[in-house]
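Deliverable D4.2, example record:
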Amino acid sequence: MNESLLKNPFDSSTLTGVHKNAAIFFSKRKDWVGRRVIDLCCGKGISTMILKKLGADVSSYELIPEESLLVEKPTYANIQKTLPIPDQSVDVVVFQEVIEHIPNQLHALFEIHRILKPGGELFLTTPSKSSLQSRLATLIFESENIKFTPWGSVDGVWGQNKDEEMYFGHLFLIGIQQLNALGKSVGFKKTVVHRTELSKTSMLLLPILFPIIYIFSIRALYRDLRKAPKGSPYCNEKIEQFKLNISINVILSKFTFVSLYK
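Output generated by the structure prediction step:
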């Protein structure tokens, strides 16, 4: 992290990586004014401040509130338990770089779905497990990055709070297919993948791996489509899976940015 970010973590011009990509995404949208937004597991509070500047009505929640840099500290919340937020009271939930840290992802998505209004949006980011770079890393060492070994029992636990609630590393990294399936299972109707900064490694791998992925994906799709009538929910979901698997936004983006709509 550079010195300017340490001096002013809420200055968008100093952001890098996933925070920079999120700030660009947020600033391009023109629908924040007056919207009720929950920044869930807000970390230092960077997205909270960006969204407030864009006119959103933002409330922040965090497992370890004292680590936030916000003047008004976040409300304590454990996403693995029931959230202190009423049913159907929120327009947008921002869930940034969290789902890869939690063991009970299905419960977390249930809780987010519960607090969202009908038609509400879950905006979720996570390190990509579905880019070409990550798929190659999985093949090599079941890792998320070709430069490193997988998370283990030593480096996979990052800490715990005063109540001995554990905070994990990326032990529960989730790919786009599983994320889409879990979202649909709890009631989200649509998954939209957003393009982020492109992965240079994935771009280099594209001409080598994409033809292989496409051929085997279309072969698997045709086999599955024979199992149910055309137009059935099963067939429709299998076609959606195929489209996600070959999506340029999925396989080339450095980060996974998705919107799940209730």
